[in-house]
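User: Hi! I have a protein structure encoded as tokens and I'd like to know what sequence might fold into it. I'm fairly new to this, so please keep things simple.
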């Protein structure tokens, strides 16, 4: 049993789970825009997410605090290096325009983690902007990259999906911010810190309305997608309603981060 927990913790801590969530959203985009399965861009997003998240999570520990690396952290570092190699491999299989946009989002990730300006904090610690940066990066990687790589025409549907995807990630991050309220630096000015948990939950639930109803404005209306999105909205609403600071770390790191995977699985089922 202890061995299984170690495996599960490595799966979570090494960002494989969040990488799968990103992969699932890329596959959702490919379905929505009728793009044939494009494994290079999906795999690039998967391994890129692993590298990016591990860099963001463990940079301070390895670079600033200079603490002795535990065995699991060394394993994660080795795994991340292997993932970085695969990121490079899949990067060169992408279209040139996709590579350029990918570099832009890589730069945003570095800005999020590293202080580029003297005596300034990194973007992760800029008051009130963390949630917008995270949502923007997810929209770019899971929606813009697959569409650009497939050379799909940019229509109103693309912009609708950008808004819908931004809202989805924004709401999911709100749940993270509620759970992390006790641990977050007050200077971060997260949404729960500014308006309180109750109002944050109301905001999250209200934002799910445009997320759902934006589907009606698509040029290619899909009834099955409405059913799938309704199930998703119910699941996210329950996660939002039951979120509090006393929840286990797995509440967000596994269950909430499973939402994109569940969305994709629902699509496969329907």
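Assistant: Happy to help. Inverse folding works backwards from shape to sequence: for each of the 270 positions I chose a residue that suits the local structure. Here it is:
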């Amino acid at each position: 049993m202890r061995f299984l927990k170690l495996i599960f913790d490595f799966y979570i801590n090494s960002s494989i789970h969040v990488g799968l969530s990103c992969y699932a959203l890329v596959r959702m985009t490919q379905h929505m825009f009728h793009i044939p399965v494009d494994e290079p861009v999906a795999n690039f997003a998967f391994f890129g997410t692993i590298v990016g998240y591990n860099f963001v999570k463990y940079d301070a520990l390895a670079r600033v605090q200079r603490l002795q690396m535990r065995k699991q952290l060394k394993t994660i570092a080795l795994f991340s290096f292997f993932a970085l190699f695969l990121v490079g491999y899949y990067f060169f299989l992408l279209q040139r325009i996709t590579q350029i946009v990918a570099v832009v989002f890589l730069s945003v990730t570095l800005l999020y983690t590293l202080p580029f300006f003297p005596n300034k904090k990194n973007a992760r610690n800029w008051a009130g902007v963390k949630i917008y940066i995270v949502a923007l990066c997810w929209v770019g990687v899971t929606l813009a990259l697959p569409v650009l790589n497939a050379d799909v025409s940019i229509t109103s549907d693309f912009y609708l999906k950008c808004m819908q995807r931004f809202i989805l990630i924004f709401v999911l991050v709100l749940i993270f911010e509620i759970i992390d309220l006790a641990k977050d630096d007050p200077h971060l000015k997260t949404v729960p810190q500014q308006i309180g948990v109750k109002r944050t939950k109301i905001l999250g639930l209200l934002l799910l309305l445009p997320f759902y109803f934006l589907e009606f404005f698509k040029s290619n209306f899909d009834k099955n997608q409405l059913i799938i999105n309704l199930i998703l909205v119910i699941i996210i609403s329950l996660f939002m309603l039951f979120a509090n600071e006393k929840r286990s770390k797995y509440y967000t790191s596994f269950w909430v981060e499973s939402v994109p995977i569940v969305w994709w699985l629902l699509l496969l089922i329907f």
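A useful reference point when you look it over: The mean pLDDT is 88. Feel free to ask if any position seems puzzling.
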